[in-house]
Specification:
The chain is built from 20 helices and 30 strands. About 30% of the residues lie in helices and about 20% in strands. Bound molecules: adenosine-5'-triphosphate and magnesium ion.
Length: about 650
């Protein structure tokens, strides 16, 4: 591990959970999960209260996950109606458009109630009923949240598809879920450019059932090609419907949404989440992990197309009656100061983003940060990939001024909410560690080959979960066998996360990367994250991705793709310097065999490095790159192939 030179921010004073409370609550949650979750299930307003709390099994031949199963509720009522008595005029959603020239919107809970009621009635006019699937392919505009909550109000199941996805990727998701309606907009402004969303839907629907309707929200006002009988303008129907819509009573276990995983490791999986358990867990983690208090302004920069946007832009914050910020744009438009400009403008108190964005901004001048007043910030968060200590330190010092705790939250689309994360009033931080389990979460490390649980505190192995938590996925849409196969078969009796992990002497968890990505050099198993962090710790390096490749002597060699800081130039000397650097930081065994300078790395649309593609390139196997439908910029791959280090 690179040495730790940070001035750690202090624990947040007055937080919901301090260190003593964490220990007590964690013990309760493990020793008596029924009582613990019966209590926290009350975060939700139930129409019919549950009498059963937990019925779960990870046994390979009988996998089932049910929470609060005889309770009934409506998710939209929980996110809106129940706040009206006290918070009708409080801002629920702040909308910050792509262009800083366009005015921001402040949508109150009262307005949200009307907008969602209207949207639900529009969907009803199109024949949407409880249990039907609705695909949402929208920019990051308030209507995306309205549409999600409108589905929830009707008991319909939404499947949000990130607006950056291609027509093919959209079509396969519409077909997989047999959706009745696709909701889109004319165009989507992003980073000063327009994505032709409606055009993409037109192309996608050529490959879908004729009965699928297309509902179009006006965003850009541009011309769009129209198919009569299939396409309808939202405004045309909205003008004639009421703003009140009755909220359907749904079972706790009824699906709230389907969401496809990023596809970092293979074909995306259609993860199904429940209504009751999911909402309780999203709300609870939002409150405790971010230490949300009334009056805070919470900003999660994810897109609603990812689970992070579902749980921490929409459902968690709104269930807690919070003010949540939705940002339509990108971190570098009009320049690399945009995030901080928005923080200053809206006095953001909690800011939650991904390591990919932090590394990107770290590669630019610090002046983009320092020229803004960030004194409103009290907490920073990270999610999506391991955050390299170097990036952590930059985030802490330059953005947080050494006074904002950083919550490095480890979780997955499948987990619904945070599983391993610091709590800002309770957990002393270590840069690069996701630290400790959340309440009710029982991480275990298994030996990769024997599948045996490792009981020593200091250990390294495959990260699994021993028992369920309310936010856990319930199945894969239309494919219950793949659900069992993917998560409960490799290690019987456990939920298998797919990630490798190290536990230190203090019981802190350090995610080492995906199990598939582990490198075995002369019999030494090494996580990719560690080598990458060492590289990023060098002043010249902005980002790095490391994979193994076949090596005659060592079994596997270490192949590094390195993106330099904007003011650095590649050279043979730099290659040598970096090799020596990593050797010094980690040890001789970790010395990179190959370093290829790469102006860009292949990433998923959510910004995660796709190592499986880098592995193929390192192996000189360009013919079978696998599913690349979720790749953000395919041209990056061509460039890497053309410049593959000739070693
Ligand atoms: P797929 O499952 O289709 O390959 P994916 O795993 O990238 O895609 P997500 O559910 O979006 O899809 O991502 C979850 C994964 O992201 C985790 O399993 C882990 O590898 C990584 N991750 C998320 N947060 C963190 C974190 N704080 N630290 C380290 N890794 C993280
Ligand atoms: Mg995954």
């Amino acid at each position: 591990m690179p040495k730790d030179t940070t001035n750690h921010p202090d624990l947040l004073a007055g937080a919901h959970v301090d260190a003593a409370a964490y220990d007590r609550m964690y013990a309760e949650s493990i020793e008596n999960p029924e009582a613990f979750w019966a209590e926290h299930g009350k975060r939700i307003d139930w129409i019919k209260p549950f009498t059963k709390v937990k019925d779960t099994s990870f046994a390979h031949d009988d996998v089932h996950v049910r929470w609060f199963e005889d309770g009934t509720l409506n998710v939209a009522e929980n996110c809106i109606d129940r706040h009206l008595a006290t918070k009708a005029d409080q801002t629920a959603i702040i909308f910050e458009p792509d262009s800083p020239e366009e005015e921001a919107q402040h949508i109150t809970y009262k307005q949200l109630h009307e907008e969602v009621g209207r949207f639900a009635n529009v969907l009803k006019e199109l024949g949407v009923q409880k249990g039907d699937r609705v695909v949402l392919y929208l920019p990051m505009i308030p209507e995306a949240a309205y549409a999600m909550l409108a589905c929830a109000r009707l008991g319909a199941i939404h499947s949000v598809v990130f607006a950056g996805f291609s027509p093919d990727a959209l079509a396969s998701r519409v077909n997989d879920s047999q959706a009745k309606v696709v909701v889109t907009s004319d165009g989507a402004p992003r980073g000063g450019r327009i994505t032709e969303l409606k055009d993409n839907v037109n192309k996608a629907l050529l490959h879908c059932d004729d009965h699928v309707k297309c509902l179009v929200v006006k965003r850009t006002g541009q011309q769009v090609a129209w198919v009569a009988d299939r396409d309808v303008w939202y405004d045309d129907i909205a003008a004639n419907v009421s703003t009140f819509c009755h909220a359907a009573e749904v079972g706790a276990e009824d699906p709230l949404f389907i969401l496809y995983t990023s596809g970092s490791t293979g074909k995306p999986k259609g993860v199904v989440h429940s209504s009751g358990g999911y909402l309780a867990y999203a709300a609870m983690t939002h409150q405790y992990t971010f230490d949300y208090h009334d009056g805070d302004v919470f900003w999660c920069t994810a897109d609603v197309g990812w689970v992070t946007g579902h749980s921490y832009i929409v459902y968690g914050p709104l269930a807690n009656g919070a003010t949540t910020l939705m940002f339509e744009g990108v971190p570098t438009y009009p320049d690399a100061g945009r995030f901080w400009a928005v923080c200053e403008k809206h006095k953001v108190t909690q800011f939650y983003t991904a390591p990919t964005a932090i590394r990107l901004l770290m590669g630019q001048s610090d002046e983009f940060v320092t020229k803004y007043d960030l004194s409103s910030l009290k907490l920073l968060g990270s999610v999506g990939e391991p955050i390299n200590p170097e990036a952590w330190n930059w985030y802490n010092e330059v953005v947080g001024k050494g006074k904002c705790p950083i919550v490095d939250t480890w979780w997955q689309t499948e987990t619904g909410g945070h599983l391993i994360t610091p709590l800002p009033g309770a957990t002393a931080l270590k840069p690069g560690s996701a630290t400790k389990p959340f309440f009710g979460v029982q991480p275990v490390l298994l030996d990769a080959t024997s599948g045996e649980e490792i009981h020593e505190t200091e250990a390294e192995g495959v990260l699994c979960m021993k028992d369920s938590w309310p936010g856990q996925m319930r199945t894969l849409w239309g494919d219950p066998d793949r659900f069992v196969q993917a998560y409960f078969s490799d290690y019987k009796g456990y939920y298998f996360t797919g990630d490798g992990c190290r536990r230190d002497a203090d019981g802190y968890y350090w995610i080492t990367g995906r199990v598939d990505d582990v490198i075995n050099v002369s019999g030494h198993r090494m996580g990719t994250a560690e080598v990458e962090s060492a590289l990023v710790a060098h002043d010249a390096v902005s980002e790095a991705a490391v994979v193994g490749y076949p090596h005659e002597l060592k079994g596997q060699g270490i192949y590094c793709y390195v993106t330099l800081m904007s003011d650095e130039t590649p050279s043979d000397e730099l290659v040598k310097e970096l090799q020596t650097w990593v050797r010094k930081e980690i040890g001789p065994i970790a010395k990179p065999d190959v370093i290829q300078f790469a102006p860009g790395l292949p990433k998923t649309r959510s910004g995660k490095i796709m190592r499986r593609i880098l592995r193929k390139i390192a192996e000189n196997d360009f013919g079978s790159l696998g599913d690349t439908s979720t790749l953000a910029d395919p041209s990056v791959v061509d460039d890497l192939i053309a410049n593959r280090a000739n070693k």
